[in-house]
Specification:
Blueprint lengths: L1 E7 L4 H14 L7 E7 L5 H6 L2 E9 L2 E2 L1 H10 L22 E8 L4 H14 L2 E2 L4 E4 L4 H19 L1
Parallel strand pairs: 1-2, 1-3, 3-5, 5-6, 5-7
Antiparallel strand pairs: 3-4
Helix pairs in contact: 1-5
Length: 161
């Protein structure tokens, strides 16, 4: 059975709703053979990452960057999970293989820096983006929740094949 690890920082109601929609989509009954494990970013470990076949990451956009909690997650798992940097400090080819991932980011006004920072780190881990980044601005709508459901379902379905 494949394992999908959902790692998120969801301290607000909007972020919790997005996270729940992603997990619900990933666990859709039409998708067989995938175990979904959800971890808060401050609790996820390198062992969780190494045991997973794919990932969905979720964060708020804080001051033009990902949440501190998701950054802490990356800081604590990066080397053990196979991350690599080149001599000039840019992303190099990671050693964990081409595992698929999805990303959702919620911001009040802008998500650009948060998305860029997560994608830079996932590239250094060698992960492959399996679905377009879900960027949500302002108040959450039912359309946003549906898109979050689809993001979770898309990454899970890729693992079930």
């Amino acid at each position: 059975m494949a394992t999908l690890l959902v790692v998120q920082h969801a301290p607000t109601q909007n972020l919790r709703r997005l996270s729940a929609a992603v997990a619900s989509g990933a666990g859709d009954e039409a998708i067989a053979g995938v175990e979904v494990i959800s971890r808060p970013a401050l609790e996820a470990t390198a062992a969780d990452v190494l045991a997973a076949d794919g990932y969905v990451l979720g964060t708020s956009a804080n001051f033009g960057y990902m949440s501190g909690a998701l950054k802490h997650f990356f800081d604590t798992i990066f080397l053990e999970a196979g991350g690599a940097l080149s001599a000039d400090g840019t992303a190099a080819s990671g050693r964990t293989g081409k595992k698929p991932f999805g990303l959702w980011v919620h911001g009040r006004y802008d998500t650009t820096g948060a998305v860029r920072s997560v994608l830079s780190i996932t590239q250094a881990l060698g992960w492959v983006q399996a679905a377009a980044t879900l960027e949500v601005l302002g108040d959450l709508t039912p359309v946003d929740e549906e898109a979050a459901y689809e993001l979770g379902a898309t990454v899970a379905a890729l693992l079930s094949a």
